[in-house]
């Protein structure tokens, strides 16, 4: 046990010592070695960036570390860049100052300290020395051209000019001029020297403690110098001496406080430059307002005639060409005097003229106002090309076209809110008036004119040999109308819209325009001499908008005291009008073409313009769909249900259905016109693939509404057609058509009822072809087939059929099957094949064979059950004779053995 020493107790935790008992050495050892005093070097550098230059020696003497910091190039780089010598190309000023010996006397109130002489800091050790004494040719050596050495050189040269600032205010400028070398005696060089000295005394350099006071004195001297330059410029301007003007202008720009330090972007609005403002104010164009009157743009009939504004704008453009071209030649490009001059010209001259013009237009009415706004903007826009042409007079000027455009955009902004609001309200009113006018015409006539007054010869598309080709020609002509040039600025006419206005309004446009809309006459291509027309009444006068031709040959004979035009509108096919569609599209296009002029607007109004373009088209779709197309089809559908086939002698045609088919052709043409208009005019402004776009959604809604209206009308039309077919079959089928006398000759041709029914069906199905989509047409044909089967089944069950009459039934069923097959609807053709097979039950003589036929359900493809066929064979004339045999064979019945009722 002696070998083992006793264990000493060990403290598990070190004693807690309050911070105040820690030694100073412990504090120092925990500090990072990169700190200078309590602060990191980066913070010291930040302080040095804002420290006045006279405080540098005292800062350097604090410690070797602070002295070393003064060698950091970031400090001198910031001060060198503050002089903007390289961006402003002021190095030549330093070279000139260096070439002239200057007195070494220190400036008054010198606060440079040890910076007063070049070797004042020679007592500092080399690593921390701030000496501004350089070896020979040191500054010209590229190896020594650090930011520090470059700034030191500028400092030594510029501080020698500071004594001149201590003179009385009126002598400062002359003293500075005397200190400048001979190479700096020109106006431009003096201005550049003053600019450099001004930057030197700036807050970034702070070469002396009273830098701000000296800078204020220098600014006063520079303003006096600028005043002298302005006087020299005015004299040169009066003598048309562009060389002297250019020297004074460039010199003034050099010392302007708002000029940028990088020579590119001004720090203040260029319009604040005094020399540019004074020059612009003296242009005669600003004081000649009385020569032009905005009221001269209105004729005695209160219509627009912009010949007066054209003359006014010619004077404005001449002024831009003359004075603007001189501005770009004599003023610095960065001053943008041309743009400032154009802005003042636009706002003070053109803007005021337009304001007076629009005020007068507003008094005359909304449409005059809208046309005047568009025409005024188009006329003012001519200034853009004039500005660009003037800027091209100097190759150094690189003026962007958008800058010139912004001059007009900003000038016209005051009118945009009112204009865009009124444009939307204007199209609403125009659409409402068009729809109301049409509703009054149609409503008053439909109340008084019965269906019997309708004339099948009045159809247009249906009267053509090829309705589809006719429709294509109509759309082609409509497209040509859309491509007609649009004149926005009126010249001695009352319509802004020029050619297109003439195209849609009789007597207001050129011959070319009128003939263009005249080509929309479908009857001229159909070869049918019976021509008709679409007319409108606006309460003042009647104008033929969609001229179909002369209808004098189509006058109805009778005692009805009403015009032939009224009779035509009583037809269902005139519940829709291409004329109304054209008027709506024209009204929309007039507005669209006006708004399109502003489509290049930037910013807020650019968004508003695009929204307005979409809104006016949406309003047109709503008026076209809800107030014309849908109402027309709905009214036609209602009137078709009132038709009673028994009240009309005509059997092969159903007048309301024919008119409805014409209505479908018109509706389809309207939809195609809307599509063409959309593709030509709206597509450039929207993304057609964006299904969330309001225009795309509204257009789809319009198309769906038209499809639904056509489908609903076709449903009623199908019922009407099949009622007519059933009426034909009932009335044209003789009582013993299928039960002829035994001695009657056998004719295997179809009956008259069958022939006329097929003729009626063929005509109507053919007329519908090409007026709607294949899907809708197939549905119509399928519905016709299904209802025809039902009619024929009921018709057969009403007859008494003999064996010889059975062949007549088969002949009729074969004829119906041939017709249905021509429709090319496979499902219905199969149904009629089964119906045709059913006719065989009337020509089988043996009752047992007949029973086997009835039981053979596969014979009819499962379309008929035995009990269904049993109902048909009951219509046989010999049914009483064969009934028991058929029943026994079908149901295995024996009446003698099984019957318990005697």
Describe this structure as you would to a colleague.
The chain is mostly helical. The protein has 34 helices and two strands. The chain has a two-stranded antiparallel ribbon with strand order 1-2. The longest helix has 48 residues, at 401-448. It starts with 23 loop residues before the first helix and ends with a helix. Residues 16-33, 102-143, 449-459, 493-563 and 565-570 have low confidence and may be disordered. Residues 307-883 form the Exocyst complex component Sec10-like alpha-helical bundle domain. This is F-box domain-containing protein.
Structural class: mainly alpha
- First CA to last CA: what distance? 141 Å
Q: Compute the gyration radius: what is it?
A: 50 Å
List the total number of helices.
34
How do the strands line up in the largest sheet? 1-2
Bin the strand percentage: under 5%
Tertiary shape: elongated
Largest sheet: 2 strands, antiparallel
User: What is the average per-residue confidence, as pLDDT, rounded to a whole number?
Assistant: 79
Helix coverage percent: 55-70%
Low-confidence stretches: 16-33, 102-143, 449-459, 493-563, 565-570
In total, the number of strands is: 2
GO biological process, one term: Golgi to plasma membrane transport
Organism: Amanita thiersii Skay4041
Domain Exocyst complex component Sec10-like alpha-helical bundle: 307-883
Domain F-box: 39-77
Compact summary:
The protein is mainly α. Among the domains are: 148-255; 270-413; 464-491 and 570-732, no CATH class; 733-891, Methane Monooxygenase Hydroxylase, Chain G, domain 1 (Up-down Bundle), CATH 1.20.58.
